[in-house]
Write a structure and sequence with these properties.
The structure holds 2 protein chains of 2 kinds. Chain A folds into 2 domains: 1-40, no CATH class; 44-218, no CATH class. Helices cover 65% and strands 2% of the residues of chain A. Chain A contains 7 helices and 2 strands; from the N terminus they run ββααααααα. Chain A has helices spanning 44-64, 72-97, 102-123, 129-152, 157-179, 187-202, 208-218, and strands spanning 2-3, 10-11. In chain A, strands 1-2 form a two-stranded antiparallel sheet. The relative contact order of chain A is 0.08. Chain B is built from 15 helices and 15 strands. Chain B is α+β, with helices and mostly antiparallel strands. In chain B, a hairpin with a 4-residue loop joins β3 and β4 (68-71). Chain B has helices at residues 11-19, 40-52, 120-139, 174-184, 194-202, 220-226, 258-263, 271-287, 333-347, 350-365, 367-370, 374-389, 406-409, 447-457, 472-479, and strands at residues 6-8, 27-34, 60-63, 68-71, 80-81, 100-105, 108-114, 250-257, 295-303, 317-325, 394-401, 412-419, 425-431, 434-441, 464-467. Classes of the chains: A mainly alpha, B alpha+beta. Chain A: Keywords: Membrane, Transmembrane, Transmembrane helix. Chain A: The chain crosses the membrane at residues 49-68, 74-95, 107-125, 131-153, 160-180. Chain A: It comes from Brachybacterium phenoliresistens.
């Protein structure tokens, strides 16, 4: 085995210098018990900085809209594109971040899209198109998407019951909008509500105990 | 639906989540060096058999609103080639992955574990069963222990948890659930002494390094505040260094004959405190002038199972603290060792340990702390840990001797142990007459290791060194 004359130690592995003092080592080589693993640089920190910077830019973009005039006349092409890009960027970011958890990711994206649509509607003078069309259509589609995705991807019940339950409840919200007279055309809301009720009766009814079990786990004190 | 078993993660394990960082991912490694190149297929078979007997190792970590929890999974571990630096991060947020990995490199079987899952003693029991199953399968000298039967281990003194016990079986569900249930039930009629009854209730918890309640009353920071008239105001020395380029752990493994080392041990000093004294002296020599920071302090984890019998694989240790101030009396190795031993002994009295456990349990059950949301708990525990680290120079972890059944003992040459570290740390473990002392640190410099090795060789002890390569130049040489 190689030896360091200064430290008086035997050195394992193909070291030409003593790993302790740097002095040249002499003698036959013995295999190294540790592999030489190439340097790796984690991109995590870069991603974290990019994410935070993105969120700041997106929130600033949304916030800045309040400085302009509300109404159809004020929004213009540039602001529409600006808002559209910010909204798309936010939705993509959140979808990518939650990609490993389909149910949670879908629920997050639905809430985000509904919120953005309502805000956009407010900015252009509140015609009610967000509550009439956007929210019920997005909620309805997401309920359908989960109904298809859960069995197709074999998602375990424990991993989705809370989120699918939340989405079904969200699907009932447009009915409330209709009842309050906030919508111009009740058809999308009624369709979405009917879908939510069907899913609730067909699937979620049996899952109440599962939902309680999951809640008990996640809210355990 | 299949309701997966789950248990809440205790505070003791939470500290590892709160304190982990890119530099110190709170991972430890135990490895066994065989007398031959490890056969990947046989190792996989041995791993499959061992894994089935350790439900705790099936766990994935998930996040609740107030706590993390361990949840059962259907994942199966695969033996991997060693392509990562030692003690690379295991737990990644929002990923459902097992909290340990098994690797092989040349003659070594390597087990790396995320510390929130288990402690050294728990992991050693797993590695031991894995190695036994592998070695027996390889030699075909006897059937692999399908039912966990291990005739030799019953006679072994307990450096680790006895794997023939119910170690691991059903354990995954039990420890905390049992603990909290017992809390509300009257004590079993046939319970043993008060101490053991208490500990049965407290069993699942190890104690975190960072909990304020654990801080010894005589810590230097308090002394500085108290300004005692008899002692000089000193600061705790902290080893400076240059971080490794990609944040990986620098590990240097010294292997020495146990008998030769013990022959040089001063009278009245235990092995752990002798190693601590050697490390203090090595740090002092490599630092040159300590200046005002003349106090060296070490965190010494102690396995609580040896005092309070438990078969739990979960964290069950406490980190004690010892210190020595240079320039306040004799500073030779013997004197330092005896002073450390005198500090250490009273702390591992059963009464003192019980008192510490009680305080921690009190903290863990405090309603106000329970309802703090998890991210805030992480933040607070992380800060407490950071403050506590400032009062520590090094950490010394001694696992003691490992024994293996005779039929396979000669297939294993060396057992070693290391921990990812935010400060210089040594981990010692012995097997077959050889003591492996692994130094880990986040720094390039190995001055304290050099001085430690020279302290040993100066006394005529044969020392063998193996080190991980961390710089581009070292790696280029290793690849050549």
């Amino acid at each position: 085995m190689r030896r360091c004359p200064d430290c008086g130690v035997a050195v394992e592995g193909a070291w030409s210098r003593c790993p302790l003092c740097g002095r040249t080592v002499m003698g036959p080589m013995r295999p190294d018990p540790f592999p030489a693993v190439p340097l790796r640089f984690s991109r995590r920190r870069i991603y974290r900085i990019l994410l935070l910077a993105s969120l700041v830019v997106i929130l600033a973009s949304f916030g800045a809209q309040m400085l302009f005039d509300r109404g159809h006349a004020g929004i213009g092409l540039v602001r529409s594109v600006w808002l559209g890009l910010s909204a798309m960027w936010l939705v993509v970011l959140m979808a990518v971040r939650a990609r490993r958890d389909i149910a949670k990711g879908t629920a997050t994206v639905v809430v985000l899209i509904c919120g953005i649509c309502a805000y956009w509607d407010y900015l252009v003078g509140w015609d009610g198109w967000s509550l009439t069309y956007a929210v019920p259509i997005v909620c309805g589609c997401s309920i359908l998407a989960l109904v298809i995705a859960v069995p197709a991807l074999r998602i375990e019940a424990g991993d989705h019951v809370l989120y699918s339950g939340t989405m079904v409840l969200l699907g009932l919200v447009p009915i409330v909008f209709t009842a309050l007279g906030w919508v111009a055309d009740p058809i999308p809301s009624v369709c979405c509500g009917a879908l939510a009720v069907i899913v609730l009766v067909m699937q979620e009814r049996d899952r109440v105990s599962d939902v309680l079990h999951e809640l008990g786990k996640r809210l355990h004190i | 639906m299949t309701r997966r078993a789950w248990v809440r993660l205790d505070n003791a394990s939470n500290i590892f989540l709160a304190a982990r960082s890119d530099v110190d991912p709170k991972v430890f490694r135990m490895s066994a060096e065989m007398d031959h190149e490890v056969d990947g297929e046989l190792l996989q078979q041995a791993l499959d058999a061992t894994f089935d007997r350790y439900p705790l190792y099936h766990a994935v970590l998930r996040k609740g609103l107030f706590w993390y929890y361990l949840q059962d999974s259907d994942l199966r571990p695969q033996v991997q080639a060693e392509v990562r630096p030692t003690c690379a991060a295991i737990y990644r947020e929002n990923r459902r992955e097992l909290l340990f990995r098994v690797m092989r490199h040349r003659r070594r079987i390597v087990l790396e574990v995320f510390h929130a899952l288990s402690d050294g003693t728990g992991a050693l029991a797993f590695l031991r069963e894995l190695v036994i199953a592998y070695a027996r399968a390889r030699t075909a000298a006897g059937p692999a222990p399908a039912g966990g039967a291990d005739p030799a281990s019953a006679a072994s003194p307990p450096p680790a948890v006895d794997p023939t016990s119910r170690h691991g079986r059903g354990l995954f569900v039990d420890p905390f659930a049992r603990y909290f249930r017992r809390e509300r039930r009257p004590a079993p009629a046939a319970s043993a002494a008060e101490a053991s009854a208490f500990v049965r209730a407290a069993t699942p918890a190890g104690l975190p390094e960072g909990m304020p309640a654990q801080e010894p009353a005589a810590s230097p920071r308090r002394r500085m505040v108290g300004r005692g008239p008899r002692r000089h105001e000193t600061h705790v020395h902290r080893v400076p260094g240059t971080r490794t380029p990609d944040g990986r752990t620098r590990a240097v493994e010294l292997t020495v004959p146990v008998a030769e080392l013990l022959a040089t041990r001063p009278e009245g000093v235990g092995t752990t405190m002798y190693l601590t004294a050697l490390l203090f002296e090595a740090v002092r020599r490599s630092a040159g002038d300590l200046g005002r920071a003349r106090t060296l302090a070490a965190s010494v984890p102690v396995n609580l199972r040896q005092f309070f019998p438990s078969t739990s694989s979960r964290n069950f240790f406490t980190a004690l603290r010892v210190e020595h101030t240079y320039g306040e009396g004799l500073d030779d190795l013997g004197a330092i060792g005896r002073q450390l031993e005198a500090d250490f002994r009273p702390q591992i009295e059963i009464g003192a340990l019980e008192e510490r456990l009680r305080r921690l349990m009190g903290l863990e059950r405090m309603p106000v702390l329970r309802i703090i949301p998890r991210p805030l708990k992480d933040l607070v525990l992380g800060l407490v840990n950071r403050v506590n680290n400032r009062a520590l120079t090094v950490a010394v972890s001694n696992m003691g001797p490992v024994r293996l059944p005779e039929d396979i003992a000669d297939q294993v040459r060396r057992v070693s142990f290391q921990v990812s570290a935010v400060r210089p740390q040594i981990c010692a473990i012995s097997y077959g007459g050889w003591l492996s002392i692994t130094f880990t640190s986040p720094f390039l410099e190995t001055g304290h290791v050099r001085e430690f090795a020279r302290l040993l060789t100066a006394q005529g002890i044969a020392v063998s060194v193996a080190a991980t390569r961390v710089t581009e130049a070292e790696l280029a040489e290793g690849a050549a």
